Amino acid sequence: HQLIGHLLYASSITARHRELLVLRVAALRDSTYLWRQHAESADGAGLSADEVDHVREEGDATWTPTEAALLRAADELVRDARIGDATWGALAGDLEPQQLMDVVFTVGAYDLLAMALRTFETDLDDDLRD
Per residue in 36-57, pLDDT tens? Predict the structure, then answer.
């Protein structure tokens, strides 16, 4: 609970960046629960409905260079359990060391949560159902 609390309320990355990472993990892990929960609240972090839809897509056209690098970082962490050198370099040019750590912890924590939600076949909350 403390790690998720830190990521939600005390993280050094912006809420927008956090939601981009969480949504990308949800898409990569096909976590319906996590996707719906965070797609619903993404506007509070400054993401439009169109941007939320684009999180599922590969390519950088929609995003700032930092946002595109964040999405690549999520891809690499989920796939390889590390951020590649090129992506790390792109992020390190814009983010402080603590922010870089929070990127890794955000992806890792929500990747674990997505695995648990899918494994336990967690039902959607009533407010997240179609």
Answer: 999 998 999 999 999 999 999 8
| C-alpha–C-alpha distance, residues 80 and 4, integer Å | 22
Alpha-carbon torsion angle 117, 121, 126, 130, nearest 10: 100
Measure Cα distances from 30 to 2, 10, 43, 72 in Å: 25, 27, 21, 17
Contact status, residue 66 vs residue 96, Cβ threshold 8 Å: no
Q: How many CB atoms lie within 10 A of CB 52?
A: 18
Record the tokens describing residue 19, joined without a space: 């939601």
Q: Is 123 helix (H, G, I), strand (E, B) or coil?
A: coil
At residue 124, φ and ψ (nearest 5 deg) are: -65, 145
The pTM (predicted TM-score) of the whole model is: 0.92
What is the distance between the alpha carbons of residues 91 and 85, in angstroms, rounded to a whole number? 10
